[in-house]
């Protein structure tokens, strides 16, 4: 049975959450890790369910062990972040989505779900496209911030797709943001585009992104093994968006 276990007290008023499950280009993870690190957000909860590997995560310059999937908070910015260092297994994605969606609903959280759209034909210097879909007031949020509609029919898969599906089924407020990204390697440029174009405007938080470009090579090196793991993972484990024509 999945659960969200509070590890510290926090007081937020209808916060926005940025979701960072691993997927294509690791754009969601890179963007969310950047937000957590930029604001030194506090670890406030862990997510525990059958789909999450029982591993211990540690960081440099610390003796602490942290859960592989966790929630961070920034009270001053009324912001939450779902940070993950592991993929969610196919067998646990439904339980995972049900648990988190229930927790978001009970805490009046508006989630921003993040996905990469594999772009095989991206040209150097061309800005990756960003578009969004939503449920509840999420569609109004997208319209108010001039986020484009999808250019074609498609599907969001993996655990993020399950989360988007649950929010829509229950009529809850949620936004799903999709950015074109490199299908093979970590893509800090796409993550930056996602932050600048959608995450920062929607949250109303000024998020510095210059160092995402300055540290692009370092970030790619850090995330390369996880990116390779996500390429090898089944579609049910890897968060990504795909045009519907790929299934026809």
Automatic annotation (TrEMBL):
<dbReference type="InterPro" id="IPR038389">
    <property type="entry name" value="PSMG2_sf"/>
</dbReference>
<dbReference type="Pfam" id="PF09754">
    <property type="entry name" value="PAC2"/>
</dbReference>
<dbReference type="InterPro" id="IPR019151">
    <property type="entry name" value="Proteasome_assmbl_chaperone_2"/>
</dbReference>
<protein>
    <recommendedName>
        <fullName>Proteasome assembly chaperone (PAC2) family protein</fullName>
    </recommendedName>
</protein>
<feature type="compositionally biased region" description="Basic and acidic residues">
    <location>
        <begin position="217"/>
        <end position="227"/>
    </location>
</feature>
<feature type="region of interest" description="Disordered">
    <location>
        <begin position="217"/>
        <end position="248"/>
    </location>
</feature>
């Amino acid at each position: 049975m999945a659960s969200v276990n509070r590890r510290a007290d926090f007081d937020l008023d209808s916060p926005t959450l940025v979701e960072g499950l691993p997927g294509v280009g690791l754009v969601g993870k890179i963007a969310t890790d950047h937000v957590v690190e930029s604001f030194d957000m506090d670890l406030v909860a862990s997510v525990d369910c059958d789909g999450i590997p029982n591993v211990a995560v540690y960081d440099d310059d610390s003796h602490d062990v942290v859960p592989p999937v966790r929630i961070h908070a920034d009270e001053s910015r009324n912001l939450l972040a779902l940070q993950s260092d592991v993929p969610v297994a196919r067998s646990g994605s439904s339980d995972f989505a049900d648990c988190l969606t229930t927790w978001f609903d009970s805490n009046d959280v508006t989630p921003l779900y993040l996905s990469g759209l594999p772009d095989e034909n991206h040209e150097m210097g061309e800005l990756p496209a960003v578009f969004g879909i939503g449920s509840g007031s999420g569609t109004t949020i997208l319209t108010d911030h001039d986020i484009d509609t999808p250019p074609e029919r498609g599907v969001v898969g993996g655990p993020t797709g399950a989360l988007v599906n649950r929010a829509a089924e229950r009529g809850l407020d949620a936004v799903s943001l999709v950015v074109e990204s490199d299908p093979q390697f970590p893509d800090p440029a796409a993550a930056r585009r996602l932050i600048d174009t959608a995450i920062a405007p929607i949250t109303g938080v000024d998020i510095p992104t210059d160092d995402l470009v300055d540290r692009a090579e370092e970030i790619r090196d850090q995330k390369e093994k996880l990116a390779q793991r996500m390429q090898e993972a089944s579609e049910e484990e890897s968060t990504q968006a795909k045009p519907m024509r790929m299934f026809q």
